[in-house]
Design brief:
- The chain is mainly β.
- The chain is built from no helices and 23 strands.
- The strands form five sheets. Strands 2-3-8-7-6-9 form a six-stranded antiparallel β-barrel.
- It is elongated.
Length: about 350
């Protein structure tokens, strides 16, 4: 191509010997990286109290008092790696650039916290053994893009990292963005299956000597997978209902362990019972969000089902056909409610269906 003669943006040529299947032998640093030097000495406007304060050239000490040959301590009051257990340092990713009195510079990965001002490190060039109480200066260096070996066991991969937040009030982080050609999402918002693939992934098929693409993120927001493995899906929450007091659960799939989108109840004692399925105040479900609730009335009881919450939008909530929100009183049996969220003119409604067994 006449327009691209000699246009090599980046080239890294190494030799791989037998027995080295992961990474590039002989390299202990990234083949290509974009790094950010953090220069923070005071609270930054818009972030609140900063978790980590390390200006460029921060005074420090290696192996303070001979307490640990891999330790680095910040020695100026107010400088710190973390505050109250919170930090913007990413262990085994972020780096310290150490400048010694001789002018020699060394790059080390931060591997652990001893205190708010002391960390353990690992030099990227090999074994780490600092002399006792050597006075140095340091800089905090944070990778944004890595291609190659990485900094601490991250080998043979491409990685993108959002720059960590400096403080509690800094707002959301920046996600990695993948965008395909213009035909990956048409003006109607729905792409064509074979044309809307924004990102594809897979593995190497040693039987055929070729890449096997097994999944795609689609430009219209969908996902196309040839195989789905969900080994870490949290199981549904199960409850035994025996007392008369209300059992309250929150429909909030992204919340803590007491909030989910699937709930199982078993009534084990006679009398009046109340179960409250509450739409969590912070939950703003998208079109298609689903909820499943099952109830096994194994004792003759009068169970009152409450369906509360506004889906974080006025006029929204659970909607049933007829009296499907309740079950017959003093009747043993199995019942299941399933719902799906529909967004219409800014109002989120969860359309519910009950099945009796």
């Amino acid at each position: 191509n006449a327009n691209k003669q000699g246009a090599i943006g980046f080239l890294d040529l190494v030799t791989r010997n037998e027995g080295v299947e992961v990474g590039d032998e002989g390299r202990s640093y990234a083949g290509f990286a974009r790094l950010v030097r953090r220069n923070v000495d005071v609270d930054v406007a818009g972030t609140g109290a900063t978790f980590t304060r390390i200006p460029l050239g921060a005074p420090a000490m290696l192996n303070p008092g001979g307490a640990g040959v891999t330790r680095v301590q910040l020695t100026t009051s107010g400088h710190r790696f973390r505050t109250g257990g919170k930090t913007c340092v990413r262990l085994n990713i972020d780096l310290l650039l150490i400048t010694r009195a001789s002018g020699e510079r060394q790059l080390a990965t931060i591997t652990g916290f001893i205190s708010d001002t002391v960390v353990t490190t690992a030099l990227v060039t090999g074994a780490t053994s600092y002399p006792s109480s050597e006075v140095v200066t340091v800089e905090l260096v944070q990778p944004v893009v890595l291609i190659g070996d990485g900094t601490s066991g991250i080998k043979g991969s491409f990685r993108y990292y959002a720059t960590p937040l400096l403080g509690e009030d800094a707002g959301g982080g920046k996600q990695a963005i993948f965008s395909a050609a213009s035909n990956s999402r048409n003006s109607g918002g729905v792409g064509v299956e074979q044309e809307d693939r924004a990102l594809s992934w897979g593995g190497f098929d040693e039987d055929f000597g070729a890449d096997a693409i097994t999944g795609h993120l689609l430009g219209d927001g969908g996902i196309l997978c040839h195989y789905i493995k969900a080994a870490r899906v949290t199981p549904p929450l199960g409850y035994t209902v025996s007392g008369a007091g209300p059992v309250v659960v929150n429909f909030y799939p992204l919340g803590p362990s007491a909030t989910k989108d699937t709930f199982h109840f078993r009534v084990t004692a006679a009398g009046s019972k109340t179960i409250n399925i509450k739409m969590h105040d912070s939950f703003e479900p998208v079109e298609g969000s689903r909820i499943t609730v099952t109830l096994h009335a194994s004792a003759v009881s009068a169970v009152t089902m409450l369906w509360s919450g506004s889906l974080a939008s006025a006029g929204s909530g659970f909607l049933f056909s007829g009296s499907d929100d309740q079950i017959p009183a003093y009747t043993e049996g199995w019942y299941k409610w399933e719902g799906v969220v529909v967004l219409n003119a800014g109002v989120r409604t969860c359309l519910m269906t009950r099945t009796d067994y």
